[in-house]
Every structure is written in structure tokens, then in C-alpha cells.
Amino acid sequence: MAQSAPLILRLVASSITAVNRAGKIIRDIMNEGDLGIVEKGKNDLQTEADRSAQRCIVTSLSRQFPSVTIIGEEGPSNCEVPADWVVTDSDPQILQLTCPKELLDVKDHEVVIWVDPLDGTSEYTQGLLDHVTVLVGIAVGDRAVGGVIHQPYYNYKSASGDDVGRTLWGITGIGTGGFNPQLPPEGKRIITTTRSHSNTVVQAALDALQPDEILRVGGAGHKVMLLMEGKAHAYVFASAGCKRWDTCAPEAILVATGGCLTDMHGNKYCYNKDTCHQNVGGVLATAKGQDHGWYLRNLPDTVHQTLV
Ligand SMILES: Nc1ncnc2c1ncn2[C@@H]1O[C@H](COP(=O)(O)O)[C@@H](OP(=O)(O)O)[C@H]1O
Ligand SMILES: [Mg+2]
Ligand SMILES: [Mg+2]
Ligand SMILES: [Mg+2]
Predict the structure, then answer these.
(1) Annotation-wise, does 263 bind a ligand?
(2) Which residues are annotated as catalytic?
(3) CB within 10 Å: which end of the chain, N or C, has fewer?
(4) Ligand 1 in contact with 121 (CB < 6 A)?
């Protein structure tokens, strides 16, 4: 059965088991208490959890899909991967789904897997654990068509053992799973944005949109989850700081719920293997039912002048 399922379903099914394993590694490293923090750049940290989770996911997926391009945030590593970090089983429910016609014949060479092994690193180091996610996005050609978001600390204050954490997925033309999509409240404008990478242009965009409330939280994955679960209407980040691995998985799931993600000029990001990694035009994402164009029209000139 597993081998006969279409490639896109096998990719998502295997990504689900890989992110679940990575989430356990992230919790174990925090429990052990030695985060091994390295500064990659200004306001840009990497921990042992980022490095280990990436090795788990990339090794697990490349064993099963050796001809598929995988691009991870933390770059290649030649350290040996412990055998119990390599998972090659698949989520059986995903393999049973009916694949839409346009995704039936996808070939290995058309696919890029974008891996953010730990999104919200800054918040992880500060103990804001529910902001942390693990992101695996699947692109076919230029488009993000599949995504998996694992939240390793979902429910961690009330649950114990195996009940901690959850995994959301979405596939274009099929739908979503692992959560209950909700619409944000009518008659209000709640905007979510960065809590650790703000600047004057990021703030100018927020001011111009006159939100009733601003939710400053960590992680691109976490912010898009707020849109899909009805907690915010838009995610506005007028900065070139996010990368393709931050947006591929969230975009695929958001679009499968009826939402939209573009740069600040309204252009879709491209996710093929030759694209640049930086989301140079910023990130504007809106929940299902929101007028994406309204946000684009009301951004201040300084945003268009600053972001290419
Ligand atoms: N100025 C910047 N420099 C480096 N990374 C940035 C950045 N602005 C945003 N990012 C990255 O974009 C993601 C979401 O940012 P934020 O939480 O501030 O909204 C984070 O991913 P990682 O945590 O995976 O590195 C963060 O590092
Ligand atoms: Mg990072
Ligand atoms: Mg990230
Ligand atoms: Mg990351």
C-alpha cells in the first residue's frame, strides 16, 4: 500500500512521523538543559535542538526519498545520526487519502522539501515553548502544495507523556488535518507579528493598518496557526528576515484552509530549488474570509520603498 500511494501523499505521511520524532528530540534537549547556543548572525541563534532536529528530519526523509531535493535551515552536517532518530514509517491515514488529479503524477525531481527544524528559536531559548514549531513544507515546481507543522509543546502545561504536542497538515486540493480550523471574529482586526525581530518599518506597517490588537509572538509557523485557529486576522511582517523554510509549510496549510500568503506587494513566493532563500518582500498572510487586498492597499509607502 505504502509504495503504491502517490508521491505527494507518501511525502506528507513520512514528514508527519519525522516531525513527531524531531519534536521529542527538541523536548529532550530542553529537559537536559544544555542548549549549545551558537550565534549565526545578529539576532539569529541556533541551538543543539535546531541542529539535532534537522539531522533527524533530513536523514529520515532522504533515506526514503533519495532523489528529492531537501533544503534545511541549518545546512548540512557530517555528524553521525543516532539510529533511533531515523524514522522511515508513514502516517497510515494520509496514505489512504484521495489525491487530486493534478498531484497524481508528481515526480521526484519536481519536488523540493523545505525544512525548518525549529521555528521560533529565540523563544525556545527564552522558555516560551508553545511558540516553537517544526516545519516541513513540500513544493512541487514553484508552488507550496503540502505542509506539516508540529507543535512539540502543545498542551505541555496540562498534558503528560505522550499527550504533549500535536501535528497539523495540509495538502492543496485535499484539505487539512490535526486541528480544527476556525474563522477569526468579525468586526475586529487582530494582527500577529514578530516579537523578536521588529524594526521601524515592521512597526510602520502595523501602525498604518490600525489593528484593534497586536499579538507579538515567535515563529512563522505559530503565527500562521493563529490565523487558522481564528485568533488573528492577519500576519504582517514588513521585513526581509523570514526564509522559504519559514513559509513553505505554513503557506500550504493556510491555503488549504482558504487563506492567503504573499509578500508585501501581493506576489506569491516561489519554492523551486533554484530560488533564493530569503523572503525579501516580507510576509503578509491572511485568514480565510479576510480581504488580502485591503491589507496590501493600506500598507504605507515606506514598506514598498524598503522591501524589494
Ligand atoms: N531579522 C532576522 N534575522 C534572522 N532571522 C529572522 C529575522 N527575522 C525573522 N527571522 C526568522 O524568521 C522566523 C520567524 O521570525 P519571528 O519569530 O521573529 O516572527 C524565525 O525563524 P527561526 O526561529 O526558525 O530562525 C526567525 O529567525
Ligand atoms: Mg533560525
Ligand atoms: Mg523559522
Ligand atoms: Mg528555524
Answers:
(1) no
(2) 50, 121
(3) N
(4) yes
Question: Structure pTM?
Answer: 0.98
Q: Among the atoms of ligand 1, which is closest to the Cα of residue 122?
A: 23
Q: Which of the listed residues 226, 246, 263, 264 should we mutate to test ligand 1's pocket, taking the one with most ligand atoms within 8 A of CB?
A: 246
119 is in an annotated binding site: yes
> What average pLDDT does the structure give for the chain?
96
Let me know how long the chain is. 308
pLDDT in tens, 118-151: 999 999 999 999 999 999 999 999 999 999 999 9
162 carries a ligand binding annotation: no
pLDDT, tens digit, 9 for 90 and up, residues 19-67 = 999 999 999 999 999 999 999 999 999 999 999 999 999 999 999 999 9
Measured CA to CA in angstroms, residue 233 lies from 110, 211, 212 at distances of: 33, 10, 11
Give residue 158's pLDDT: 84
Q: Where are the domains of the chain?
A: 7-177, 190-306
**Highest CATH level, class, for 190-306:** alpha beta
Residue 1 has pLDDT above 80, yes or no: no
pLDDT digits (tens, 9 = 90+) for 194-213: 999 999 999 999 999 999 99
In this prediction, residues 214-234 reach a mean pLDDT of 98
Q: Which top CATH class is 7-177?
A: alpha beta
